[in-house]
Design a protein that fits this description.
Blueprint lengths: L9 H28 L17 H29 L5 H23 L3 H28 L7
Length: 149
């Protein structure tokens, strides 16, 4: 059995999207543990929503929140497609593109806060948004809603 992007099902893309978020949570937890053990952060020093730690650590937090914010949209569209029995190959392709663009966006976000990185990160986000909109259109069409009328 070989793994290729073309054989990645929408449900596999969704699960991997969630796993990506879990990996980010583990990364944040590991970073926090290291900061606590080394005494760099006092007890109770991880105030939610308030920047704390290095710029890279805070970018990791924001990258995680970006995954969390977008997972429900992607999940609703993929599960809607499964329920509506969408069989279009482009649905599968777009789901894979969403996953890859999310991973790219996260890596760019975590590695740099430079202006060019922000532009690249936003570009990766736009790829996700337009891919999800395309998938949503396929789901809605499968349910009988046709935008071409």
């Amino acid at each position: 059995m070989t793994f290729t992007l073309a054989t990645l099902s929408p449900i596999a893309s969704l699960v991997l999207f969630a796993v990506w978020g879990l990996l980010l949570v583990i990364s944040i937890g590991t970073w926090r543990l290291a900061m606590a053990v080394t005494g760099n952060v006092p007890q109770g020093g991880f105030n939610p929503g308030t920047p704390h730690g290095s710029a890279a650590y805070w970018r990791l937090n924001r990258a995680h929140m970006n995954v969390v914010e977008n997972l429900p949209f992607f999940g609703a569209i993929v599960l809607g497609g499964m329920i509506a029995n969408v069989q279009e190959p482009n649905f599968q392709l777009l789901a894979s593109i969403v996953l890859l663009a999310r991973i790219a966006q996260t890596i760019i976000h975590v590695t740099s806060g430079a202006q060019v990185a922000i532009l690249l990160r936003f570009s990766a986000y736009l790829v996700q948004v337009f891919s999800m909109l395309g998938m949503a259109a396929m789901v809605l069409q499968a349910t009988g809603l046709n935008f071409a009328k």
